[in-house]
């Protein structure tokens, strides 16, 4: 099992709009496809920063979920273009982490 910690930078002044879109559209869509979203956070030290986490059982699980989400017509035609307008894509940072043996997230 592993997690993705994804840090995004919204377009200046658009974080509230981004969070609303994440919570109303993206997270429900991804969870409906089987994605396990484990957290959604605003960055208290960066007015345009946003962080979220997803959990995957293994590499084949993540590959299947990535395909279900990002290769879908809805993502390509509807959600993806809106995401690209609300975020600064080149500032996205994705960190893959594995919980330690004593971690409560295990």
TrEMBL record:
Gene3D superfamilies: 3.30.70.100. It holds the Pfam family NIPSNAP. InterPro entries: Dimeric_a/b-barrel, NIPSNAP. Residues 3-88 form the NIPSNAP domain. SUPFAM superfamilies: Dimeric alpha+beta barrel. This is NIPSNAP family containing protein.
